[in-house]
Amino acid sequence: MSTVAADSASRSGLWKGSTDTAVPSRMRSVDAARCASSPRLSPVMPCLAKWCSVSQTESKPMRSAWTACASDSWMRSRASVPSGHWTVWKRPNFMRVPLAASASADIRTTGLRNAMRAWEHRRMTPANRQTPVRGGRLPAERLRAQRLLDPTDATPAEVVADLLAVQAQDGLATKWAVGLRTPRGASTETLIDEALAAGAILRTHVMRWTWQLITPADVRWMLALVAPRLVAGAAGRDRELELDAKTYRKVNAALDRAMRDGAHLTRAEIVEVLERAKVSPEGQRLSYILGHAELAGVITSGVTRGKQTTHAHLGLRAPDARSPMPREEALAEAALRYFRSRGPATDADFAWWIGLSLTDARAGLAAVRDQLVFEEVEVAGKCVTMWRGHTSTAPMTTPDAHLLPAFDEYLVAYKDRSDVLAPEHTRHHNAGGGLLAPTVVVDGRVVGTWRRMLARDAVEVTATLFAPVTKTQQTAIERAAKRYAAFLDRPLALTVDVLA
């Protein structure tokens, strides 16, 4: 088909011939200027470049329907393009050319190249252009980014700083989450307890109304960024508990006076402080009062006294904390550290993790996108744009296993976990009520759950697998269990079961 004939056929809507296929109506045109200004469409430039490299001889006549790819309606022809290459975009109004294999290669690629020029002002540098990949290597990349695969030397505080924040409502599980991310044998439960006692790591409410581990340097600017949205979201519950802004100011002033001399108070002692201030701590009021005081930057975690946790004055526990920064800078800082320590991940994953709106998450990402790498990744049959730091993408060469604690960042840091946890196994990991089970992970994918029991002279670990594993994989699970026992400095008693 000649160029003139092709253009005429495009305008008339006629696509006929022995090898041509009608273009579905959902391939709608979009204005080129809109494409050029859209931050959601700019990441697909490398996909266009990759498609342009497909020669006419590599292409076959289209025999199957076009299928939608990702949220931006990019299209893929499974019959005409080699697997893993993403193809046609919503064609701008200024260029309507047939993309059937019978058309000349010049016709097919000219429109794509013209469209690519509209995106050049996005200044996507070669360093962060990546070819489309399958989702199969996601586990290895995330394990490596999260320091679970070949971690470098680091103290517990450095691990927490690298991750920015670590979910921590289960105290024992949280210590293992940090220990896992230090070199094997380099960290024990005792060392992490010492870091918490010294204030090198704080455990406080920061995001999503859950406790987090965070370093003193990061606590104040993160609270300034995230806390206002959390406080606003709790307004309804505050009214139910008859807690208002005046009451919270009264409570915070009382706690400030009680702790400014360096006191570390248990919950029972804090109740006494509240009663002296004529504030009732009955029912759930105490939990909300303490949570709001943490979000206000008045109190934080103190030294454990026996088996009781305490609270202390944040100003004394974090005297050198970074001051709150402008919101745009804080969003950029949080985005950069999230994607470097947890990528590949999507903007929706980041929004979920930090507990802010998707608009805020995208604003933070836009500010640092030139410092990250993006990829078009196929996950569960869908094409999504993911971002990561400049980490190695080498695959795992030997079976690798981990006993991850409940609420580990490897799972909770992402809104969509289907790439590492099969949907049919979700009910075993999340039984409801906000409780997540510890998981057995082999080669980056969840293959079971586990539980532990501390006996007098050992730690008893029972792993329940969703399906049988190979002998090599079982050996890797045994190594992971031995590492956990070494972390606790106890002998191991391991039992491995398989679900019926």
What does this 3D model show about the protein?
This protein is α+β, with helices and mostly antiparallel strands and 500 residues long. The chain is built from 20 helices and 17 strands. It folds into four domains: 3-124, no CATH class; 148-317, no CATH class; 327-388, Orthogonal Bundle (Arc Repressor Mutant, subunit A), CATH 1.10.10.10; 401-498, no CATH class. It has helices spanning 3-12, 32-37, 45-52, 105-118, 138-145, 156-163, 171-179, 189-198, 216-233, 235-240, 245-259, 267-276, 285-295, 314-317, 327-342, 347-354, 358-368, 409-412, 426-429, 471-488; strands spanning 67-69, 74-76, 133-134, 166-167, 202-207, 210-214, 299-301, 311-313, 373-379, 382-388, 401-404, 430-432, 435-436, 439-442, 445-454, 459-465, 492-498.
Protein topology:
Layout: H1 3-12, H2 32-37, H3 45-52, E1 67-69, E2 74-76, H4 105-118, E3 133-134, H5 138-145, H6 156-163, E4 166-167, H7 171-179, H8 189-198, E5 202-207, E6 210-214, H9 216-233, H10 235-240, H11 245-259, H12 267-276, H13 285-295, E7 299-301, E8 311-313, H14 314-317, H15 327-342, H16 347-354, H17 358-368, E9 373-379, E10 382-388, E11 401-404, H18 409-412, H19 426-429, E12 430-432, E13 435-436, E14 439-442, E15 445-454, E16 459-465, H20 471-488, E17 492-498
Parallel strand pairs: 3-9, 16-17
Antiparallel strand pairs: 1-2, 4-6, 5-6, 7-8, 9-10, 11-14, 12-13, 14-15, 15-16
Helix pairs in contact: 3-4, 9-15, 15-17, 16-17
